[in-house]
């Protein structure tokens, strides 16, 4: 199950981090 | 009215579909006879790859073509192309990572110079090259034209990736969900979960694209306001 957990963590976590980066850049006023 | 409603629903529907994918993929769907629990990566990797290659790179290519065509030329489509390409970089990166995680226990290696893997990695480099090219040009019209041409030329790689499993002997498997005879090889809860994952990740792309587009508009407005401010300050100093 370790590989499955890693796959889900990267896919969902990576996309969540990217979404967060867009929100954060907007807050800071940087593109 | 309908447009407003669909815009409002995009975020919540995306979240529900992705939560369903997570829950169904990890707990409800059965393990595979051959792959065991590793089959659960089927609900992540193909959907992410689908968005990376076809939805996001496709959006960037179509928007680039629309920019090059005089009748539809506008900075709106140029901005869409840029934002879609940035999202594409993230999805291509995650396609390679999740594929590598699946490859290690099934093939015994994290990476192989296989036709599909290599051509996907090349697409990632091209997408990064596109972002670099945009930073290298200050003139908006020149930047838009050059990057649109680059995006369209890069898109030649997409059909190469798609058919790579047929054209070359690859470690990566061929079509599984739909074979060339359009026979569905996945059934029951596995098929439903796969469908939900494709829908969820596709909607997530549009949600990210919308957010990224708004950020880009905000950045452009701020840059132009800063420039106006600097000019006004110079004028007041009697520089002009």
Number of alpha- plus pi-helical segments of chain B = 7
What is the helix fraction of residues of chain B, given as a range?
over 70%
H/E series of chain B, N to C?
Answer: HHHHHHH
The string of secondary-structure elements of chain A, in order, is: H
Topology, number of strands of chain B: 0
Largest interface, C-beta within 8 A:
A-B, 20 and 33 residues
Number of E-state strands of chain A: 0
CATH topology group of chain B = Four Helix Bundle (Hemerythrin (Met), subunit A)
What is the multimeric organization of the chains shown? heterodimer
Proper CATH architecture of chain B: Up-down Bundle
Name of the CATH class of chain B: Mainly Alpha
Radius of gyration of chain B: 21 Å
Number of helices of chain A: 1
> How much of the sequence of chain B is in beta strands?
under 5%
Q: What class would the helix/strand composition of chain B place it in?
A: mainly alpha
Major sheet summary line of chain A: none
- What does the main sheet of chain B amount to? none
Structure in words:
The complex is a heterodimer of chains A (31) and B (240). Chain A has one helix at 2-28. Chain A has one domain (1-31). With 31 residues, chain A is mainly α. Chain A starts with a helix and ends with a helix. The longest helix of chain A has 27 residues, at 2-28. Chain A is rod-shaped and about 40 Å long. Chain A has one helix and no strands. With 240 residues, chain B is mainly alpha-helical. Chain B has a single domain, classed as Four Helix Bundle (Hemerythrin (Met), subunit A), CATH 1.20.120. Helices cover 75% and strands 0% of the residues of chain B. Chain B is built from seven helices and no strands. Chain B has helices at 2-28, 45-68, 75-107, 115-135, 140-154, 157-167, 188-236. The longest helix of chain B is centred in the last third of the chain and has 49 residues, at 188-236.
